[in-house]
Amino acid sequence: MERSARLFENAKRRIPGGVNSPVRAFGPVGGVPPFIASANGCRITDVDGRVYVDYVGSWGPMILGHAHPAVLAALRETIERGTSFGAPTEAEVDLAELICERVPSAEMVRLVSSGTEATMTALRIARGATGRDAIVKFEGCYHGHADSFLVAAGSGAATHGHPSSPGVPASLAALTLTAPFNDLGAVAEIFARSGKEIAAVIVEPVAGNMGCVPPQPGFLEGLRALTKEYGALLIFDEVMTGFRVHPRSAQGLYGIDPDLTTLGKIIGGGLPIGAVAGKRPLLEQLAPVGPIYQAGTLSGNPLSVAAGLATLRTLRDQEETIYGKLEELTRSLVTQVGAALRDRAVPHQVQRVGSMFAIYFTDALVHNFADAKRSDANLFKRFFHGMLAGGIYFAPSPYEAAFVSAAHDTAAITATINRLKRLDL
Ligand code: KE4
Questions:
Q1: The pairing of beta strand 233-237 with beta strand 134-139
Q2: Which fold has domain 69-317?
Q3: 39 C-alpha to ligand 1 centroid (Å)
């Protein structure tokens, strides 16, 4: 860890907290974050030469594993022809077509450069299309760092104890109404009180920014019914769940037809990307067709699009094999994790949807953010560092999901379980 420690000290002099995204700083768990030199398949290697089995996967994008041959080949072929033109390209149309083919509710797509841009744009469409200003989000859900979403936010905002951030005008924050995830009654009350002012409900269909919290039966269906009843839009934030929890994303898994869907992570194959997808009448409200403005210098960047196309084409062409392997490996892993913790009488919940999962150190099921916060933080810290010291790399926060990739194998799973069994928890 010597080289990482030195680099971290240097980094902190020039970059706030030494990181370009807060959750990387090891805030809640302490210690020095390994500076990563390279990655391949399901493993990453730090600057001190230590190798780790990786369950962060760059926070979700690396569903095929790191440095996948098809992605690298696509990037090599593209980069020879230049990196950015600021003009339309054929590949962007191919990616939009493929997203519309694979995401059931998508009729049109606008590409942007991050998940935050995608959710910010979806919100602006909802407000512009309905003429209403209020939105509903869920405590512990994270939709990127646009002002309206930094209210009771999950992920790094919760990790660092600022679920509602300074710098967001109170007048704007007041337009963000919040409810506990999975609490349909609370949402119905909000609509009964303020339904005519609500532009949209935005929801992570599987809450991946408070660990991994599946929707209770009827919850998503209820949100669809309520938004229809009151003329509000339903926005599925699938930046994390898109192409992750099912070949047709969460909306395909749960059979819900949202008005707008935001995407990111996997659709860029590890390069900067985001997307707003949805019904044609809504997307065509965006400039230059409609009056709602949104733009981006590097939107649809050739390298991001090439990596995204290579990833989504691989997922499409090898759907059975890849999603079958992800299901089998993740099921095997979480079953063995549960058994190992049960044998040690450690209070725990292991919650999973597809190849995203979370380990909570609590004896009650986690249905919302309040439940997630009951997880024993000290026990998580011991777990995290014990696994890291043994070459197993989990997210440095109890409010993050873990991910299995198609590059994981039984050797990686076995190494993970063997390490867990030796931990002093
Ligand atoms: P980005 O702006 O970070 O690309 O995407 C924001 C975003 C939007 N919606 C959901 C459901 C998300 O999970 C995210 C970003 N996820 C976090 C990890 N949970 C990104 C990691 C980080 O902040 O460094």
A1: unpaired
A2: Aspartate Aminotransferase; domain 2 (3.40.640)
A3: 21
